[in-house]
Specification:
79% helix, 0% strand
Amino acid sequence: MNRRKKIVTKFQKKDKRANAKLHKSNKPAYVSKAEREKRALEAEQSLCAADEQNTTAD
């Protein structure tokens, strides 16, 4: 019985891992606080640069 149980659980684990790879989570990846601030600054700078280009083009 024990040997059979070990074999069955081994295959169940393998199936579970394969199934987990197929169904990825829709949760977004974690972004650290420092990285969020850095991205916000970059977005702000690019927005300011775009505004400056628009005002000079008019």
